[in-house]
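Researcher: We're teaching a course module on how sequence relates to structure. For the next exercise, students receive a sequence and then see the predicted structure as tokens, so they can try to spot secondary structure elements on their own. Here is the exercise chain.
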Amino acid sequence: MSDNEELSNRMAVALLGFGEAGQAFAKGWGASGAPADLFAFDIKTNSPETSEAKWQDYQRCGVTGLERLTFASAVFSLVTADQAERAAQDAAEALAPGTIYFDCNSCAPGAKRRSAEALEARGIRYVDVAVMAPVHPKLHRTPLLISGPHAQEAKALLDTLDMAAKVAGPEVGTASATKMVRSVMIKGIEALTLECLLAGRRAGVDEAVLASLDASMPGWNWPERAAYNMERATTHGLRRAAEMREVVTTVEELGLPSDMARAIVEWQQRAGDMRLDLAAGPEDYAGRADRISNAMAGAHRAAE
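Model: And here is the predicted structure for the students to work with:
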């Protein structure tokens, strides 16, 4: 029996936070038959308003729900960015020495290093993880970038779980810095799409603008890309805004001005606050742009 087989036969994996990412990982593992017993704990379990729905999530995804974080061979922290350090501190009190803690949250490198310090002080092996793409459609096979002193052994464990991870280096913060800096561009393109195309629609020049973009950037298919970017920003804007606040911190930790990152926060927050379901409705950029523009106009009138 190989070391990986021995590990898999006794592995207990806990998901700390059970939102979109946690559920995606659980569904992927369930479908692929990954060799692990799956557990999950989400703070919403302890709230009367959200407890029943969260227990239903556990059952639907085939995991054993927990009322608090307990023993596990490996823990995947998938909470919101603003709760990541608190989750790590709580985990330091609950987990046994030797546990591998995968911090998959979209946090600045400084936050990751503080979490690592709290956990390593209790003998818990910390791994900086950057989730480098949306968790749908690849689920547990979504590309991961990992770093830290335990990255190599963590990679072996992730391979056992049929995950797609690459090692970025031996320092905590390398993986998170890669994602944070990349997000200036990725989330920035979404914000630029909103400002550019909403203005274009109101001015009646959107088709000419998109034709010019397609001529300047062949192969991008700007009308299709614009429609996609609008849906992503409105559906995930609140989470993206939270991540971009961490990007602001990252850029400032590097001694650079964060003007662009701050502007992206504003557009992503604005898009998320609309609570629009653009997946239900027109799929073309024009229809989506008009829905966003109308929602913004309605919010402006309500504020007057």
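Model: If you want an answer key for the exercise: The longest strand covers residues 125-131. Confidence is low (pLDDT under 50) at residues 1-8.
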